[in-house]
Amino acid sequence: MLPLFPGSADAAGQPATLGVLGGGQLGRMFVHAAQRLGYFTAVLEPDPQSPAGLVSHHHIQTAYDDPAGLAQLAQLCQAITTEFENVPAQALQTLALTRPVAPGAAVVGIAQNRIEEKAHFTACADVSGVGCAPYAVIEMPAQLQAVQDGRADLLPGILKTARMGYDGKGQVRVRTAAELAAAWAELGRGACVLEKMLSLTAECSVLVARGWDGQVVSFAPQRNVHVDGILAVTHAYEGNMPPALATRARDAAVSIAQHLGYVGVLCVEFFVVDDGSAHGGLVVNEMAPRPHNSGHYTLDACDASQFDLQVHALAGLPLPQPRQHSPAIMLNLLGEVWFDASGQRREPDWLAVLRLPGTHLHLYGKTQARAGRKMGHLTITGPDVVSVKTAARRAADVLGLPGLDVS
Ligand code: ATP
Ligand code: MG
C-alpha cells in the first residue's frame, strides 16, 4: 500500500523495501537515494559484480525474466522500478500483477520502440508544441523504394533500429538510397526508422518527475554535448540555452509525461536546430523512462536529485520541486580515461582532479575499464559559471580529454 513510509516495517517485521530491475549505475544511485531515506533495497541483476547489486541490501542474481527471481523481488519489495531501458516489458507486467511498478510496462514498451515513441510524440505535438525530425518507418524492402521514389528529403539521414539502441549503437549514417539499402542489410533488415539528418546547433534534455496522483515537478533543461553518439558533457546553469527555448522544452517534456500518464522520472531529449528563427527550433529526439545520464549533476547541484525524485515518486511520497543551488558541468568518465595515448592502462590522476575547486567524483564500482564504457562521472559546481567552466577545463585536461567542449 502506498505511500510506503520510509523506515517502517510490516506486521511480520519486514522493513519497507524498494526494488529495482537492473543493476547498472542508475540502479546504484537509486539505491543510494532510497537507503539515505531509510528504505531497504533489492536489486534483480544477473551480473554478480554489478554497480547496484554491490550496494543493495538484497541482490537477486537471476535473469531479468526469470519467474523465480521476479517472484522473490515481488516478495521482498512493496514497490518496484527499473533502471535500464531494454528491460523486458513482460517482466514489469508480471511484477505489476502483485506490486505497484513505476514506470509501467506500457510506457516502457513505448520508449523501447522508436516507431511507437515517434507516434506518441507526433500525437502530443499539438499540445507539446514540439514535433520530431522528419522520418519514415523501414520494415520491408518496398519502404526502401518508397524513400527513393518520394522521400528524398530524408537523405542524408540516420537509419536507427527501432529497438535496443543506446549510446549511438544500432545506427548508421546514410547519404544515398544505395547506402540506405546497405545499412538496412547491415542492421539485419528488421524494423528501423530513417530519420533526416538535421543540422544541430545544440542538444538538450529535460527531467520530469510525475507521481501516482499526477503531481508533476521538473528540472530546468540541461544542454548536452555528445561525442561519437555518447553523452560527454552536460551544462547545467542559467544561460546554458536561450530562455525561450528552455521554457518550450520544459513545457513540452511535461506534456509528454502527462500524456503518457507516466509515473516516475522521465527524461526527454531534444535537438535544437537552426530554422532561421531568432532562437532556433526545437525537435524532440527520444525519451528515457528513468533517470538519465544528463541528470547526474542534480546529485551535487540541486537540493533534490533525479534519484531522490524517483524514490519519492515510486513510494508515493510528495514530490519536492527541486531547486538548483549551484551552476554545474558534468563530465562523463568513459573507459578511455583509464588509458594513455599509447594505449597503456593508467590510473587517472584523481588527486589533481580532486584538488580543483568544486569537483565531485562519482565512480560506479566497475573494475574493468573499456573504451566507451561508462565508468563514472565528475560534476563541477561553483559560485558562478566562469569558475565552473575554468575548473571543468582543467579537469578535462588532467583527465586527458583536451578536445572536450566545456565552454
Ligand atoms: P542514447 O539512448 O544514449 O541517448 P541513442 O543510441 O538512443 O542514444 P540517439 O539519441 O537517437 O541515440 O542519437 C545519438 C546522438 O546522435 C544524438 O544525441 C545526436 O547527437 C545524434 N543524432 C541522432 N539523430 C540525429 C539526427 N536526426 N540528426 C542529427 N543528429 C542526430
Ligand atoms: Mg539519445
TrEMBL record:
PROSITE patterns: ATP_GRASP. One of its GO terms (biological process) is 'de novo' IMP biosynthetic process. Residues 122-315 form the ATP-grasp domain. GO terms for molecular function: 5-(carboxyamino)imidazole ribonucleotide synthase activity; ATP binding; metal ion binding; phosphoribosylaminoimidazole carboxylase activity. SUPFAM superfamilies: Glutathione synthetase ATP-binding domain-like (SSF56059), PreATP-grasp domain (SSF52440), Rudiment single hybrid motif (SSF51246). Homodimer. Belongs to the PurK/PurT family. This is N5-carboxyaminoimidazole ribonucleotide synthase. The gene is purK.
